[in-house]
Amino acid sequence: MINEARMRMVMVGNGAALVALMGLTACGGSKGSGGQDGGDGGNGNCPPQTAPALMCTPGVSPANPLITDFTDGGGWCASSGKWGTTGNLVGSLFSYKGPMTGTMISHAVTSGALHLKGDVMVADYAGGGMAFDACVNTQTYSGLQFVLSGNAAGCNVQVQVQTYSQQVTQNRGGCSSEDGGTCFQFPKLSFLPLDAGTTSVLWTDLESTGMPATAAGIAAEIVGVQFQLQAESGAACMGFDVSVDDLRFIPR
C-alpha cells in the first residue's frame, strides 16, 4: 500500500497548494513554480485572494452546501484560479505527485469541471483538489457529494478529506512536518468508481481511515478535499484523465 503520509508538494496555479497555495512553503521546504491555470472564463465577482490563518474553533459552517460546480454561477473564477463565492466558502486548486521519476499531473478547469491528467508510475501516486480558505467545523452537513468521470487508466481512485490536524504547518495546518511522517494521514475512501453519477461519501464512511478517526472529529476540522490516483496493481497508470464536478456538502 502506498504511504499517503509522505506526499511531495508541487506548485500549481496561483501559488503552492497542498501544495501550499498562495506562496506558502511546500512540504520539502522549497517553493514550487507554475503558471496561471487555464480553462473557462470566470465570473466578474471573483473571491478575494487571501491566505488567512485556518482556525477550526469556532471554524465555519457554510450557509450554502455547494462548494463549486466550476461554472460562472458556481463561483469559478479563472482569472484568479479561485472558486467559491464571497461570504461563503472559497478556496483554490492544487495538484501534487509522488517521488517516482515519470509520475506527472496537470490540473485545469475546462468544460465546467476540474480535470486531472497525467501518468502514475508503479507504486506511486498523484492527485489534486480544492484547498479551503477557512476551516469547516460543522454539524449541519453529514458528508460530501461529487461527480467523478473519465479514465483512471488502471489507477485506484481515492477521495481524501484534508483535516487541520494532519495538514502541515507550511500549508496553514496543525501538523509539523518534522514529526517523522505523521502528517497527511487524511481520512479517505478508496476504490471510487468513475462514471457512476453522483457519489456520496458520509463522514461515517471515513471513520478509522485517517485522523481524526471519528465522524464528529472529521467534521470539526475540514480544510480541503483531494482526489488521489494510486498505481497499486503492478502496472503504471499512463494517460489518466479524471474529471471532478459538482462538489457539495450533504445537508443532514
Summarize the structure.
The protein is mainly beta and 252 residues long.
Explain what the structure shows.
This protein starts with 7 loop residues before the first strand and ends with a strand. Helices cover 2% and strands 38% of the residues. By secondary structure, the chain is mainly β. The chain has one helix and 15 strands, in the order E-E-E-E-E-E-E-E-E-E-E-E-E-H-E-E. 51% of the residues are buried. The strands form three sheets. Strands 1, 5, 6, 9, 11, 12 and 14 form a seven-stranded antiparallel sheet that branches. Strands 4, 7, 8, 10, 13 and 15 form a six-stranded antiparallel sheet that branches. The chain has a two-stranded antiparallel sheet with strand order 2-3. The chain has one helix at 215-219, and strands spanning 8-9, 11-12, 15-16, 66-68, 82-84, 90-97, 104-110, 113-120, 125-136, 141-151, 156-163, 188-189, 198-202, 222-230, 237-251. The chain has a single domain (4-251), classed as Sandwich (Jelly Rolls). Mean pLDDT is 82; it is low at 1-44.
